[in-house]
Amino acid sequence: MEYSFEGYIREDGNAGIRNHIGVICSVVCSSVVAKEISERVPGTVPFVHGNGCAQLGDDFKLTKNMLVGISSNPNLYSALLVGLGCETNQISGLLDSIPDTKPVKGIGIQQMAGGENTIKKGVEIVEQWAREAATQKRERLSLSTLTVGILTVDIDESSLNKMAPVIGGVVDRLVEHNANVMMGISQTLEPAGQILSERSEIVEVKNRLRKMAEGLQRKHWKDVRDESIAFQGFSEKEKKLAVLEAEMTGTTPIKSLLGYNEIPAEKGFHLITVPTNIVEALSNMASSGCNVVMIVSRRGVLTGSSALPCMTLTPQNEDEYFDELIDYIVTAEEVSYQVEAILAELLEICSGKQTNLEKLALGEFSIPHVGTTF
């Protein structure tokens, strides 16, 4: 069976499933101005965050790279970068790093001699882009132009027993038709590193997955003061849950183990590092090129992504999930039937159908920290 959807083809061959105009602050100090520009022009999406000022080292690199990634996301027709002028994360550096595949411009509050001038100029720029974007038509595209993310949130053993075979089947079908699939490495999936390592032919990926299986290495700051608990092995219950979640990754080879804002080098199934914070995890997936994310949850979540439609899937429960948030309920019906049903819903979303999180305007953007903030 051939699968297709209606999207916007981009210059680099990837597909956009939305045609947003991004208004992106380079630093927290320009976030209010960026939001004001976006609020005045329909069709725009603000990407604001608390980073960019006086950042150094890995945190500065992460902020810059994630903003480059979100600007490059194929769901954005164009991107306007709004800076202050004195920040570490300079607009000029961002513009030099963004691939030349779409309209991108940058403006600064200090260079424009104030916020009102910056807002006026920003509105002028994005209004022109909005007119251009409105003339674009969707066209029939193959799954090979699509990148799908999968994020598990608030999952338990009962939910995984019901959902893992179905989601695993969806992953295999997507990869079979040359789509890129990124599965977030959640805290619950980490203990399955040894099992997952057997599905990669790349020595580095094998070793990293095996290391991941040895024990939890991410802790809250208050915990790492005590070296005796900075590294903690997994319990038998955690290992059992991880084996079930590993089934959700399907059966295809693991092509790579991606870090923050890394883009896959080849088509196939990839694992990607994600923080425990849902918004930060979705933002990382967006900056790595995802078009859409399937959120697999026990009952649904109350947030989404500003850049990505988030399709929420839950198992059939008696009364534990939030109906208004759910796009598909996994039942006891035959696995193959539900795989096709989920793919059909996913392709409708990629063709323009709003997810329930989109209808409720539950979308955010946030950048994680890899070190302490001054």
Keywords, separated by commas or semicolons:
7-stranded parallel beta sheet; 374 residues; 2 domains; alpha/beta; 14 strands; Rossmann fold; 4-stranded parallel beta sheet; single chain; 20% strand
Please explain how this structure is put together:
The chain is α/β, with parallel strands linked by helices. Helices cover 36% and strands 20% of the residues. It has helices at 31-39, 57-72, 91-97, 115-134, 157-176, 193-197, 203-212, 221-224, 236-247, 278-287, 335-350, 356-359, and strands at 4-9, 15-16, 20-25, 44-47, 76-83, 104-108, 139-142, 147-153, 180-185, 254-258, 269-273, 292-297, 310-315, 328-330. Helix 1 (31-39) packs across helix 4 and helix 5 (157-176) packs across helix 11 (335-350). Residues 219-225 have low confidence and may be disordered.
CATH fold-level name of the largest domain: Rossmann fold
Please count the beta strands (DSSP E, at least 2 residues each): 14
- Structural class comes to alpha/beta
Q: Report Rg.
A: 21 Å
Q: Approximately how much helix is present in the residues?
A: 25-40%
Strand fraction equals 15-25%
Shape: globular
* Strand arrangement across the biggest beta sheet: 10-11-9-8-12-13-14
Based on the structure, what is the oligomeric state of the protein chains? single chain
